[in-house]
Design goal:
Elements lengths: L11 H13 L3 H13 L7 H12 L4 H13 L7 H12 L4 H13 L7 H13 L3 H13 L7 H13 L3 H11 L4
Helix pairs in contact: 1-2, 2-3, 3-4, 4-5, 5-6, 6-7, 7-8, 8-9, 9-10
Length: 186
C-alpha cells in the first residue's frame, strides 16, 4: 500500500518499516521489495550491499525475483566484484523454475558472451522462451535477432512481428525499431 500508493498516499518510510518487519520474519515478497528500495534508492539512500542482502535472503528461499536480482548484481558488479559465473548460477536457478526474466537475462549472457562463449543461437532460444511468456524486452531481442540475422536466418517480417508485440507493451526500444524499419519501407 505505502510503496505503490494504491489505497493510501505513497510513503516510503512507512513502506520500509512494514517491509522490514515482514522481511525479518522471512516473507520473500517483502525481502524483494526491501531489496528494491535499497537497489533503487527509493525513500532511503541507495545501497547495493543492503539490497543484495535482502535479495539473497529471498533467493535462498527459491524466490525467482530474488534470484534474478542476485544474478544481475553479480553480473554487473553491483555491491560485489563482477562475477559472470555467479550471475549465471543465479539466473539458471530462476530459469529452472520457468521464470521469463531469468530466461531473458540468460539470453543476454549468451548474446554478449558474458561468462559463456558468445552464442547467438542459444541466446535466441532463451529470448524466445521469455518472449513466449510475454516478456517485452525479450520480444524486442527476438525481433532484433530476426532483423539482423544473428543465429537465425534474417527475416524482416518476423522482426516486425516481434517488435510490434514488444511495442504493444510499451517497449520504447521496440517502438524505435519499428519507426526505423518503417523508414526503410517495411
Amino acid at each position: 500500500m505505502y510503496y505503490e500508493s494504491q489505497i493510501v498516499p505513497q510513503n516510503y518510510p512507512e513502506a520500509l518499516k512494514w517491509f522490514r518487519k515482514a522481511a525479518e520474519k522471512g516473507d520473500t515478497r517483502a525481502q524483494v521489495k526491501l531489496g528494491h528500495m535499497y537497489y533503487f534508492g527509493q525513500g532511503i539512500p541507495h545501497n547495493y550491499e543492503e539490497a543484495l542482502k535482502w535479495f539473497r535472503k529471498a533467493a535462498d528461499q527459491n524466490d525467482t525475483m530474488g534470484q534474478v536480482f542476485v544474478g544481475l548484481m553479480f553480473s554487473n558488479g553491483q555491491g560485489v566484484p563482477q562475477n559472470y559465473e555467479e550471475g549465471l548460477k543465479w539466473f539458471r536457478k530462476a530459469v529452472d523454475q520457468g521464470d521469463a526474466i531469468g530466461q531473458r537475462f540468460l539470453g543476454e549472457m549468451y548474446y554478449k558472451g558474458h561468462g559463456v562463449p558468445q552464442n547467438y543461437e542459444t541466446a535466441f532460444e532463451w529470448f524466445r522462451k521469455a518472449a513466449d511468456q510475454g516478456d517485452a524486452i525479450a520480444q524486442r531481442f527476438v525481433g532484433k535477432i530476426h532483423c539482423e540475422g544473428y543465429g537465425v536466418p534474417q527475416n524482416r517480417e518476423e522482426a516486425l512481428k516481434w517488435f510490434r508485440k514488444a511495442a504493444d507493451k510499451g517497449n520504447k526500444e521496440a517502438i524505435n525499431e519499428l519507426r526505423e524499419l518503417s523508414g526503410q519501407g517495411f
